[in-house]
Amino acid sequence: MKRLLIIVALLAAGCGSSSTGARTADGKVLLRYQLWDTNQKPVYQKCADKFEQANPNIKIQIENKNWGDYWSGLARGFIADTAPDVFTDHLGKYPQFAQSEVIETVSTRAVNMDQYLPGLAKLWQSPDGRQYGLPKDWDTVALIVNEDMLTKAGLTKAQLDSATWNPSDGGSFEQMVAKLSVDNNGKRGDQPGFDPSNVKVYGLAFDPGGLTYGQTTWAGFAASLGFKLLDKNPWGTKYNYADPAFAQTFTWWRDMIHKGFMPSLEQARTLGQSAAFQSGKAALAIDGDWTIGTYSATKGVKVGYSPQPAGPKGSWSMYNGLADAIWVGSKHKPEARKWVDFLASKDCQSIVGTEAVVFPAIKSEIPKAVAKHEKDGIDVSAFTSYIDSGNTVLYPITDKAPQINLIVQPTLEEFLNGNDDAATVFKKMNSQVNNQLKYAK
To answer: Which residues are in coiled coils (predicted)?
Structure first.
């Protein structure tokens, strides 16, 4: 707990203290439940309605905060005694929360852990076997496709679905991205005279956030070469950023920027990946299945989804999932446990599947989400293909994740902006990262 106090004490300055343990006017226990995705709030309200029918003495109050404010708000709440009773947690955050003792363990005694997709539950388990979350959903990453631009470039969706990639020449995937790139003089990226400094439409957009683990950037590409970021996962003890496969992959990524087929780091930050795609400034994007609703709603554009290009080892994706956490300071822990158990149960995940805002973690409920998308005219097989093939990489879990991110993210950003030798840069970065793990407690 002391470690957390040190980390967030400054954030808490000026915050007043208030007791949780609130009740409604008619005496019901009021549970505050917080999440960051506004698209998911209506779905979980339906779960809350069903939960309240079975538990008439409990009222669920669902609160939204955007991603940028969500985690700092939780940190302040942990100190000021104003945190929500239950909140949606992330794999990149929970190890620190668990070590700082601000979240409760959850019981698996009455839960059929085999009902969840393989690997998801294990990600929420500490090295000593304590469970800090029950899987509620899962996600993979695929190509977001402007099919109108694809057709205009003389390409087909079938060609993109079967695209190949390698770090040497980019394979057929780079050829397609080049053809989809158009400068302000109307020249395409595969034509003589294309101006990489004066681009109107980029073949591929990218999200510059999260480069440390590369969920929506390099992770799937590197995995298609057989690259493994950690010696074991979860709770790896050694990072492998010095592996030549990573250097080759990220160098190719930088080359795509230099060639004008992808925006620069600064442009990517300014545009934003989804905004670049939806405004017609990019023909392709790489994003997670949690954004299907956002992209599919793009006005005036026929949007499709394709698997990430296949490298020597096939087409791969990072595989992630969320869970809900109970704040250690909640004054209604028994009720909070009931709610968390319900969120991870078939009763709630059946609703999640039917609404299809995300894919539920329970295997039997996934077809409901697929069917809902099909009914809406959306083919989501690009996202489910990795589950079928087993070509997934679990989200990396280690100690010292915040400290490691402070090393890796700026180093990779600087690399994208320059011309430094990859082997030299990543060897030094890898040494710094692994030194952090040597002193992990």
So the answer is: none
